[in-house]
Amino acid sequence: MTIGNFEYYFVPILAALKKNGKTHRRANMEDVSKAEALTPEELALTNSKGTNVFRSRVHWAQAFLAQAGAVSRPQRGYLEITDRGLKLLDENPQGFKAKKFREFPDYADAWGGKRKHSDHDEVVNEPDLDTTPQEKIESAIDELEDAVATDIVQRVRNLSPKFLEIVVLQLLQAMGYGASESSIEHVGGPGDEGVDGVIHQDALGLQRIYVQAKRYKAENTIGRPDIQKFVGALSGLGANGGVFITTSTFSNDARDYASKNLSARVVLIDGAEFGKLMVRHGIGVQKRRTYSIVDIDEDYFED
């Protein structure tokens, strides 16, 4: 079983409420998850923004059913199926879309659009009902961040190799590596012994991670020989691990070698992941505007 879109859960929610009567919204979510036989992995699934997919979609489905009068809220946090909900369930056992709610004259469109009151009125802000409002926002943010990440990598490719080496060390520090700012050391240049930076994980320097950064064009794939050379350098330096970052890509053979090499733990980060990490950790970007996603505070409406 896979997680459906939020409209898919209209019927399971109503069916659980019909069976169990008045139920707390969280218990209703649990009832739905059991009826759908979702695995722990599916229930724990989150999107790129950390939002739990199942809980978010069931939450929005509950909200739409309440907007449509298919369920009522008899007390704080509780849901109860109504006569309208029973009729919807009876007439649509295989499921239905949110547009079905427009048949009800008292339905307030939760998407912020205008309902058609007469043949002379126009319906505006017609939504794509495959996704919840929150998913729409998060998808748009993902699209924007992907575009910025791609732009970052393109810009870095046009700058000096030293710039990439320093940026990579700043990124790893922002990710939490290194005991302090002085623990990050740039060593790239002639005679660098195959590494461009060193991260001292503890004050005494007993745990060290070595870094290699390659500024390559997108079409230049890094193969197994480059990784073998890096692993050899790590072995000679007595390293605890290494990070190989490039603005291009790694071949499958290179990734396979890195994953199976036992002399030192080697992590490969290609251009696409490098750009996303830069955005995620705020390196080379600035916040233009911050938006807050609001939700109902159930405790506030306690009787």
Automatic annotation (TrEMBL):
GO terms for molecular function: DNA binding; restriction endodeoxyribonuclease activity. InterPro entries: Mrr-like_N_dom, Restrct_endonuc-II-like, Restrct_endonuc_IV_Mrr, tRNA_endonuc-like_dom_sf, Type_IV_Methyl-Rstrct_Enzyme. It holds the Pfam family Mrr_cat. GO terms for biological process: DNA restriction-modification system. Transmembrane segments: none annotated. Residues 6-90 form the Restriction system protein Mrr-like N-terminal domain. Residues 157-278 form the Restriction endonuclease type IV Mrr domain. This is Unannotated protein.
